[in-house]
Structure formats: C-alpha cells, structure tokens
Amino acid sequence: MTALEDGDMHTLGSELPAMFDGMKLAAVATVLYIVVRCLNLKSPTSPPEIINQDTAISRYLHKTCPLLTKEYIPPLLWGKSGHLQTVLYGKMGRVNTPSPCGVRKFLPMQDGATATFDLFEALGDHSTGDDVTMVICPGIGNHSEKNYIRTFVDHSQRQGYRCAVLNHLGALPNVELTSPRIFTYGCTWEYAAMVGYIKRAYPQTLLVAVGFSLGGNIVCKFLGENHANQDRVLCGVSICQGYSALRTQETFVQWDQCRKFYNFVLTDNMKKLILSHRSSLLSMSSSNIGDADLNRLYAATSLIQIDDTIMRKFHSHSSLKEYYEKESCVHYIHKVTVPLLLVNSSDDPLVHQSLLDIPRNLAEKMPNVIFVLTQHGGHLGFFEGAMLFPQPLTWMDKFIVEYTDAICRWEQDQLACRRDTHQSTKVTLSG
C-alpha cells in the first residue's frame, strides 16, 4: 500500500464517525418530521368557524355562548390529530367515566319490536326553573352504557336536565330481539316511541333532541318527517353526522384519511352485532333475512356489502340506493323550523369534507340553523387538556349544555316579551 493510499484510509477513517452522526441526525429529523406531520403539531388552535344568518337568535347565541368564540384547545401532544381523537374516543370513550343511575323502559312497537331507553332524572333544578328533558340518540350500535354517553348524561343531569337515552335496537347484548330487525341508519320508529313516552309521562316538560353521529341523522330526520314531531321541542342538536348515507358510503371506499380502514373496522363491528342475533333473525316467520344472506355477511368487507345484503331488507327497500335515500336526513332537514345546531370537525376522518357543504349551505339559507365547524376534534372526540392527559369533560359535552342553556333562556325571554305585549294590547283596548 502506498503512502497516498494510507493517507486516504486515514482520512476516511476519521470521517466515518461524522458520517454516522450525520445519518443519526437525519434519521432523528425524519422521525420528528413524521411525528409533527402525523400529530399535526404545527396546526394552530382557533375558535370554531360559525356559519349562520344574522338573526336576533344568532346574535343572542354569540353573546351568551362563550365556547362559540373561544379557542378550542385539544391536548397539545396528540389532540390535533383527528385520527388519535377518533381512536381514543372509540377505545376509551371518556376518562373517569361516571355511572349515572337510571331506569330502563321497554316499549312495544307495532311491528312486534321492543324499543328500550334509559331514563335519568335531573340532579338539581335547571337554571331557568323549567322542566327540560334531553332526548338522546347515540351513535351507530351504541346505547346508554357507552362511556361518552354516560359522561354527557352525568354532566347534563347536574345542570338540571332530565335525560332519556335510546338504546339502538339490537345494540344491548342482554336484550333479545322480539322482531326480525335491528336499528338502521335512519329508522326513527324507536326514537319516536321514546319521545312519545316522555311527552305523555311529563306533560309539562320541554324537549331538547340530541343526536351523536348516526344518531344525529335520526334526530334531524325525525324532526323533519312530520311538523308535529317538533311540538314542545326547544331545539335540535346534531354532532358529527354525515347527512347523506349515499354520499357517505361513496367516500368510505376511498383511502383518503384512512377512511377505507375505518370502513373495515365498522364493518367488522356490524357483522358481530348482526351475527349475535342470528337465531332471532332466522327464527321469526316474518323475517326477510335467510341463511344465504347471513352466509354472505361473513364475507362482507365493507358497510355497503352489509347494507345491501342485510340492512336494506329490514324495511323491504328494493335497492341499496333507495335504502340510502330514504334513510338520510338530507331530504328532511330543511323542514325543521326549531333552532337547530349542527356540529362537525374538520379533521373527522369518517366525514369527508365534501359532506360539510350540506350543513354549510343549510345554515346560509335557513335562519334557524347554526353550523359550527371546529378545526380539531376528530369523530366524537373533542378532548380538552394541557399536554398529555385529557379532562373528564370534553368541549362537546360542555358546548351542547351551554347552547341548550342559552336556548332555554332565549325561549323564556321570548315568552316574557309576548306576555308583556299581550298585556299592553289588553290595556290599550280597554282604554
């Protein structure tokens, strides 16, 4: 080996540690970049975007609902990721979940089904002194025992609200089906039965209709199906729904925002729920479901396949398109005249951005609708916190109650104004 070669080897040997250090730094930088991108750490926090017409009630809400104009601040390290918010909600529900004490009610339906709901009495007086009941419809396959429902119910009870929570037909593992069907995206029969019971049992109560995800679709469809359904309803609240089942399912076959993965997870959950009632669905003579349908269900890898094989047949829809059209609130929501709050999150991986045009356009055209769009929150997450650990109450829990409190005060003020006007008219006429 020549002296020159010896020098080259010496130089190379001295540079190797620096090269390895550089590679380590590059690897660390790459990992940090991926973490920052995946956790969306550079995304700024901001107040919700609010879309509504300029009306007396919207101006009142802007003044009396601080959460409308205040920044929503999710946990710093992970809360800006819509995926993590959604996954944590799905796996954990909430933290330090309370256990509200309620009474389960059973309601026989005309088709032989048995609807169930849980009734929770208020734990104190409402701030207005009124008797107000929240009639709550949970998300897909959910019921009153889910952690996010229990947390919301406990918070509402403490603010003076009675709560009635629908248990979706077939969702409770310890309640057998008495007819050959389970809940669907937009069947309002069980929700209507619960609302009817509350109206009869508490003739003086006012109602607040609250729906989460699929429950938001059912609530809005129920209110718009028949104007009489809005009697004694102070307002409607919908959280994280997709508004159109047809357009939602079209987006669920896309990989954008890992939506196809979520579709697979939801499909697996629905398969398990349906198959848990296999014997009931097959044993009843009026069933539209046969062995062949359930066998095809085993092979289903998407909600569209389940809907076409099983779900549309519960109500004898001739096609998948007809099922989606008839079950979606988008065809009914414009008939709702009571105050209506629609809430979505921009980073919700289950609700495609194109679907948000529906509530946006609705709020721009209808004076009773307010659309609130947060930057973060995921699907039914909306966790709040400082760095790592979320608070027991979410932004969603607090905002629904704050909005409802404001509506109650608004209606009380309007009633007082009408009473004063009536008295003034009587005095003028008598004079």
Automatic annotation (TrEMBL):
<dbReference type="GO" id="GO:0048240">
    <property type="term" value="P:sperm capacitation"/>
</dbReference>
<dbReference type="GO" id="GO:0008126">
    <property type="term" value="F:acetylesterase activity"/>
</dbReference>
<comment type="function">
    <text>Progesterone-dependent acylglycerol lipase that catalyzes hydrolysis of endocannabinoid arachidonoylglycerol (AG) from cell membrane. Acts as a progesterone receptor: progesterone-binding activates the acylglycerol lipase activity, mediating degradation of 1-arachidonoylglycerol (1AG) and 2-arachidonoylglycerol (2AG) to glycerol and arachidonic acid (AA). Also displays an ester hydrolase activity against acetyl ester, butanoate ester and hexadecanoate ester.</text>
</comment>
<feature type="domain" description="AB hydrolase-1">
    <location>
        <begin position="133"/>
        <end position="386"/>
    </location>
</feature>
<keyword id="KW-0442">Lipid degradation</keyword>
<dbReference type="GO" id="GO:0047372">
    <property type="term" value="F:monoacylglycerol lipase activity"/>
</dbReference>
<dbReference type="InterPro" id="IPR012020">
    <property type="entry name" value="ABHD4"/>
</dbReference>
<dbReference type="GO" id="GO:0051792">
    <property type="term" value="P:medium-chain fatty acid biosynthetic process"/>
</dbReference>
<keyword id="KW-1133">Transmembrane helix</keyword>
<dbReference type="InterPro" id="IPR029058">
    <property type="entry name" value="AB_hydrolase_fold"/>
</dbReference>
<keyword id="KW-0378">Hydrolase</keyword>
<dbReference type="InterPro" id="IPR050960">
    <property type="entry name" value="AB_hydrolase_4_sf"/>
</dbReference>
<keyword id="KW-0472">Membrane</keyword>
<feature type="active site" description="Charge relay system">
    <location>
        <position position="213"/>
    </location>
</feature>
<comment type="similarity">
    <text>Belongs to the AB hydrolase superfamily. AB hydrolase 4 family.</text>
</comment>
<dbReference type="GO" id="GO:0051793">
    <property type="term" value="P:medium-chain fatty acid catabolic process"/>
</dbReference>
<keyword id="KW-0443">Lipid metabolism</keyword>
<keyword id="KW-0812">Transmembrane</keyword>
<dbReference type="GO" id="GO:0097524">
    <property type="term" value="C:sperm plasma membrane"/>
</dbReference>
<keyword id="KW-0735">Signal-anchor</keyword>
<dbReference type="GO" id="GO:0046464">
    <property type="term" value="P:acylglycerol catabolic process"/>
</dbReference>
<dbReference type="GO" id="GO:0043401">
    <property type="term" value="P:steroid hormone receptor signaling pathway"/>
</dbReference>
<feature type="active site" description="Charge relay system">
    <location>
        <position position="348"/>
    </location>
</feature>
<dbReference type="GO" id="GO:0036126">
    <property type="term" value="C:sperm flagellum"/>
</dbReference>
<dbReference type="Pfam" id="PF00561">
    <property type="entry name" value="Abhydrolase_1"/>
</dbReference>
<protein>
    <recommendedName>
        <fullName>Monoacylglycerol lipase ABHD2</fullName>
        <ecNumber>3.1.1.23</ecNumber>
        <ecNumber>3.1.1.6</ecNumber>
        <ecNumber>3.1.1.79</ecNumber>
    </recommendedName>
</protein>
<keyword id="KW-1003">Cell membrane</keyword>
<keyword id="KW-0719">Serine esterase</keyword>
<feature type="active site" description="Charge relay system">
    <location>
        <position position="379"/>
    </location>
</feature>
<keyword id="KW-0325">Glycoprotein</keyword>
<dbReference type="InterPro" id="IPR000073">
    <property type="entry name" value="AB_hydrolase_1"/>
</dbReference>
